[in-house]
Structures are given as C-alpha cells and as structure tokens.
Amino acid sequence: MAAQPDAIFVEGLDFFTSAVDRLDAPGWQLSSPCEGWVALDVLGHVGAAVQFGTMLLTGGQPVWSPADPPGAVVEGEPRAWWAAIAEPARLAVAGVDLAQMVDSPMGRRTVGDGLSFPALDLFIHAWDLGKSVGAELVVPARVIDFTHHVIDPLPDAAVRNRGVFASAVLAPSDASESQEFIAWTGRDSLWSPSSNH
Q1: What tens digit of pLDDT does each residue of 151-164 get?
Q2: DSSP string, 81-148
Q3: How far is CA 197 from the centre of its chain?
Q4: How many beta carbons lie within 10 A of that of residue 106, not counting itself?
Q5: How many CB atoms neighbour CB 171 within 10 A?
Q6: Which residues of 137-166 are buried (b: 16+ CB within 10 A; e: fewer)?
Q7: Rounded to an integer, what distance in angstroms lies between the CA atom of residue 65 and that of residue 77?
Q8: Taking CA 164 as the corner, what is the angle to CA 38 and CA 63, rounded to the nearest 5 degrees?
Q9: Which residues contact 79 (CB under 8 A, 6 or more apart)?
Q10: CA nearest to 112, candidates 3, 4, 1, 2
Q11: Reduced to 3 states, what is the DSSP secondary structure of residue 52?
C-alpha cells in the first residue's frame, strides 16, 4: 500500500524547509541542478505551486501563470517568504478529503490525485536546493516508492517533457537508492555547484 499523498505532502513541506534553511542570502543566487535556474528560482517555482494548491484546497479558483524567472515571485527574505506559504499549506491539507473532486489545470480530479505530484516535487526540488550549496539530501525510500506509484502508470510522453522530468540518466554503479532515483528524474546525481551546467 503506497503512502497517502497528504502525508507525503506534509512530510515534503518539512523536507523542503530543511533545504531552504541551508541557504543564506548569497546562496540564493547560486546555480542549481535545474538548467538555467538559480536556487531562488527553485524556491519561487515550488512556492508558487504550493500557493496554487493551497488556494484550490481552500475553495479558491487560482490561475496558473508561472513567472519567468520563477524567482521573481519571491518577495522579501526568502526563508520568511517560504514559511508564510508552507504553514497555510499544512493547515489546508490537515483532515482534507482525498476523494473530494476539484477542478484543476489538469481537469477534474480528486484532491488525492491533485496532491500527489506537488508532494513528490517537494522532495526532488529540496534535493536541487541542497545541491546548490553542495549538500546531498537523501530522498526517503517511502517517497521513492510513492513517486513510482504515481508516475509509473503514466505514459512516457506525459512524464518525460520539459514540464515534468527530463529523460532518465545513468546513475553511477555505486549509486545509493536516492541517487538512482534522482537520475531517474533526469538529473545528474553527481551534479555539484562547480559543474558547468
């Protein structure tokens, strides 16, 4: 039985917060493993997506219009900006009916389905933020299992595109389970701030 998306989402908020807390003011302008994005762009992308989801869960009708670059949406001190987004999201998910139907950019779907991708995205982008400052965050095995439960039934065309995951890359032969997972998402598991990406 795969973990429930609301539990993974709340755990993901904590995991992402642990990555945010690793960065100081100069760190937000460091390169990230996401091509063309600095760390602040990763934060802006995740924060905007979480805000969007919170509005959906609380009965709003948000419009998805991503900023370019994503970091442009971050206002004030980045850690405080994220904290002000994470707490309402945590409250919105508490006790939510996962079977409730809602309208989303992907059409009408259950809350559980709608939470699933943002939940796993929090862990993957936390890894990106950690790598920006040379830290190796380990994605938990239950999150890896949950991600495969969500993604594996989908056709490749729906997953392997610019908006989701790049093509899987080969992990080193001695890679950990977390590094193999990161490579499966299309990232270089050995990426470092000194990589020419």
Answers
A1: 998 888 888 877 77
A2: HHHHHHHHHHHHHTT--TT-EEEETTEEEEHHHHHHHHHHHHHHHHHHHHHHTT--PPPPHHHHHHHH
A3: 20
A4: 10
A5: 20
A6: bbbbeebbebbeebbeeeeeeebeeeeebe
A7: 22
A8: 85
A9: 20, 21, 23
A10: 4
A11: helix
pLDDT in tens, 82-111: 999 999 999 999 988 989 888 776 678 888
Alpha-carbon distances, residue 187 vs 25, 57, 95 (angstroms): 25, 31, 34
Q: Can you say how many angstroms the Cα of residue 156 is from the centroid of all Cα atoms in its chain?
A: 19
Query: Rounded CA gap, 81 and 119, in Å?
Result: 19
pLDDT band at 45 (very low <50, low <70, confident <90, very high): very high
Close Cβ partners of 19 (under 8 Å, ≥ 6 residues apart):
125, 126, 127, 129, 130, 135, 137
At 38 the three-state DSSP class reads strand
Q: Which one, of 142, 132, 153, lies nearest residue 181 by Cα?
A: 142
Cα 150 versus chain centre, distance: 14
This prediction has a pTM of 0.92
Least Cα distance to 89 among 120, 117, 48 occurs for 48
Domain 5-184 superfamily per CATH = dinb family like domain (1.20.120.450)
